[in-house]
Design a protein that fits this description.
Strand content: 15-25%
Structural class: alpha/beta
Number of helices: 8
CATH architecture: 3-Layer(aba) Sandwich
Strand order of the largest sheet: 1-7-8-6-5-2-3-4
Distance between the termini: 29 Å
CATH topology: Rossmann fold
Helix content: 25-40%
CATH superfamily: LmbE-like
CATH class: Alpha Beta
Radius of gyration: 17 Å
Order of helices and strands: EEHEHEHEHHEEHHHE
Largest sheet: 8 strands, mixed
Low-confidence stretches: 1-5
Oligomer: single chain
Length: 247
Amino acid sequence: MTDADSDLDVLPEDWQRALCVVAHPDDLEYGTAVAVAKWTAHGKEVAYVLATAGEAGIDSMKPEDAGVIREQEERASAALVGVDSVTFLGHPDGMLEYNLALRRDIAREIRRHRPELLLSINHRDGWTTGAGGALNQADHRVLGQALIDGARDAANRWVFDELLVEGFEPWNGARMIAFASSPRPTHGVDVTGHLDAGIASLEAHQAYLQNLGGPAFDVPSFLTDAAAAGGTRLGVVHAVTFEVFSL
């Protein structure tokens, strides 16, 4: 690691409303939810929007059954970090398409919630820089691009003007989009003291975690190690890192 690699800016926290937009239940719980726990504890408003119900994510369970369970687990998980607004858009898990319907649905939710900060997870091709790293999943890549474009759509009165008929006025108050778990982080959030809530939030996805296959997934160790690594880069005990784009 070079000095340049470790030079992270502090993510601004001079905002009141944030909207998290991801593809699947459990996407936010691999780090972002720890930051959410901090923010809601400090009185900030955070809402979740999920493009799918994650119905194709459990091999041993039919999608119609898995989707119901995963929605329930996501709502319980969100509540543990102070989030009571969880919306599912109903797009197909594993087959998420970048199209106007997805952009419209995201723009609608941005206009509905009127956030100053948008959050998601890594939308790049892989999870690490350089050759040989693990590839990212298709839905994550599609969702990230749709969110970037949907944020612009939300601000433009003449894009998806049917949203005006529905009563959703344009919103251009989103200042930035922050992507967690990016291989190219630019900012960090000090989450020291909030790790337990984030761990509980991921552990709430019991059905999903129990059906991953292979050795049991050690949630506390995974999140603690990741937060410690982020903390080292930010110069604090625990941190969550983000790649941030200005709007």
